[in-house]
Amino acid sequence: MRCIELRKLVDAYVDNETTEEQNKLLTMHAESCSECHALIEEAFHLDAQMRSLDADEPRSCLNAFGSPLRPQAVLWEHARRSHL
Amino acid sequence: LNSTEQSLVERFRRGDDEAFDELYKLLGKRIYRFALRMTGSKEDAEDVAVQTFAEAYRSRQRFSENSALTTWMYRIAVHMAHRQFRRRKPTISLTVEIADTTSERHMARIELVELVLFLPESLRTPFLLVKLEGLTYVEAAEVLGKRPGTVQAQVHEAGKRIRARLTPPGPKAAELKLAEGQP
Q1: What is the pTM for the complete model shown?
Q2: CA distance A30 to A40
Q3: What pLDDT does residue A7 have?
Q4: B112 and A53 in contact by Cβ < 8 A?
Q5: CA–CA gap between residue B175 and residue B116 (Å, rounded)
Q6: Sign (positive/negative) of CA torsion B98, B78, B165, B160?
Q7: Is B28–A62 a contact, with Cβ atoms under 8 angstroms apart?
Q8: Interface pTM (ipTM) of the complex?
């Protein structure tokens, strides 16, 4: 595998979307290419950062209607917001 | 669909209130999180989440049992987020991010949120579905009505653009060179 091929596949590799054969070729290449090795590490780092972007609970829009949430409450909230 | 999901879908389609609540418990936070990173503002994200669940309830009879419930809900959420953009361009509401700290980790998080928001919609949507929501390329393609190969290319392009700004110039320069077709 050449650098240009690895670079096209790096995100698919991190997303577990590459084939066994591609994985083998990719890791073999990365072992001997420090730039590609660094790129794979950056891709994994970005992946980890993205997955840690967890949102807060919604402030008020639906939680305010309590639990269990009834569809009528959501339809009401939707209508109210549409008229703001 | 497993038997629990099957039962949820059947009850939801009949208009069962409890099934609607279960659906919200199952996907409410994920839909809101996706909407927040798509729009960049809590208010817009709340609007999108409300619109998504309202539309899901209204169109529950049209839900096809051939598609997964999660995929169907994300498809509605994407549609609603895009509709929201037509009304208002995404903005970075720093109140979302600057809560109580300016630590290095928190600043890196803000930078990443901004970079994602600066992506064009066509890249941001598949990137978030895969990287934030953990959908496979096939699932994201189903949500977006595209081929998995297109999703793969878009996720790669988005990742490349973000890495080019997040990382030191060494690998970035090499990657840009390759993208321009240089040896």
Answers
A1: 0.83
A2: 8
A3: 94
A4: yes
A5: 19
A6: positive
A7: yes
A8: 0.85
* Helix or strand holding residue B136 (H, E): none
Q: Which of B53, B55, B125 is nearest to B85 (CA)?
A: B125
CA separation for the pair B25, B115 (Å, rounded): 30
Q: Which of B53, B125, B128, B172 to mutate to test the interface with A (most CBs of A within 10 A)?
A: B53
H helices of chain A, in order, are 3-14, 20-32, 34-51, 71-82
Interchain pair B17, A58: CB under 8 A: no
- DSSP per residue, B28-91: HHHHHHHHHHHHS-HHHHHHHHHHHHHHHHHTGGG--TTS-HHHHHHHHHHHHHHHHHHHS---
At B100-147, the pLDDT tens digits run 456 677 777 888 888 999 999 999 999 999 999 999 999 999 999 999
Q: Give the residue ranges of chain A where pLDDT is below 50.
A: none
